[in-house]
User: Fold 5-dehydro-2-deoxygluconokinase from Paenibacillus oryzae.
Amino acid sequence: MIQFPTGKQSDFVAVGRLCIDLNANEINRPMEDTVTFTKYVGGSPANICIGMARLGLNAGFVGKVADDQMGRFIVRYLEQNGISTSGVVTDRTGAVTGLAFTEIKSPTDCSILMYRDNVADLLLEPSEVNEELIAGTRLLLISGTALAQSPSREAVFQALEYARRHGAVIAFDLDYRPYTWKSDEETAVFYNLAAEKCDIIIGTREEFDMMEQFGENPERSDEITASKWFGYKAGIVVIKHGKEGSIAYTKDGNSHRADSFQAKVIKTFGAGDSYAAGFLYGLMQQWSVSDCMRYGSAAAAIVVSSHSCSDAMPTAKQVNDFIAQAEQGTQA
Ligand SMILES: Nc1ncnc2c1ncn2[C@@H]1O[C@H](COP(=O)(O)OP(=O)(O)O)[C@@H](O)[C@H]1O
Ligand SMILES: O=C(O)C[C@@H](O)[C@H](O)C(=O)COP(=O)(O)O
Assistant:
């Protein structure tokens, strides 16, 4: 199992993008016919951080926001959720906040239209990464999209170095979004370089495929994927398969499968972020890997049944109640 350091003042710090989700109000129709949206804080690492805070952990964020109303909305929302924003800096170059418009055509057919030109989150400089915050935390989360461009790419490697120096456990949510990357080869190279430095790696089968495009795993075997990382620093590799569930491999040679829960799905996005929050929370409680996966799967089922990602992140009571109801077959 992963051993988390003790005696730190915070549990969790995420580094990466703080953005806005604009989720279609008129669901079950294409974007062309959608005219109103609800605004939420978004960005995968932001969602995970909010999820961790909701579950009761002491959390903080390292990132950069635009010097505009959206940036201030994001910082205020983090603070309202008890998340430390001492590591969130404000851009002064006129960069903007990344937007994700979500299209909910049906509960199984969802897509995201991202507006990410000149976004503030990718302008985080290595010198702006708050070492004190990372030194004081038990778990650092990085997210792949922040590797897409300089200087954010170097800032992530700086954060990884601070985590190594101060003994924080490092989790990597692959969070691959093609929009900001220039070439497949560049993407794979930087993902692999970062993954070598991480203790916990979480991604979908498709995300791992992207990292393995140089032909090392033509059969797309989850076991081959995981075993590669045990030769570096990883102790746990989780491969997610959407509604089909997930599989986790541990360095001791074991593997664990988790089914997804039945859910009244509104939209599919947000599943991965809530799963990551629930899973990582469980690891920090020293639960068994199977229990952590179950908790992550339950958190995901709650979020896919809700309109938002960040705002729907469940509390521990909500997850526990959901699991209890699922076990009794009385799920709402
Ligand atoms: N339709 C669904 N119903 C219930 N749970 C789901 C559904 N889709 C995903 N999940 C849960 O969320 C987890 C992560 O979902 P996945 O789609 O693989 O990640 P991502 O959102 O990163 O693509 C799954 O392992 C599963 O537990
Ligand atoms: O990550 C983004 O910028 C958009 C997210 O806020 C969005 O809601 C989403 O796509 C969630 O991702 P998932 O959990 O991997 O499905």
Q: What stands out?
A: The mean pLDDT is 96. The chain has one domain: 13-331. Residues 204, 240-243, 245-246, 260-261, 263, 265, 268, 271-272, 275, 297, 300-301, 304 surround adenosine-5'-diphosphate (ligand 1) (CB under 6 Å).
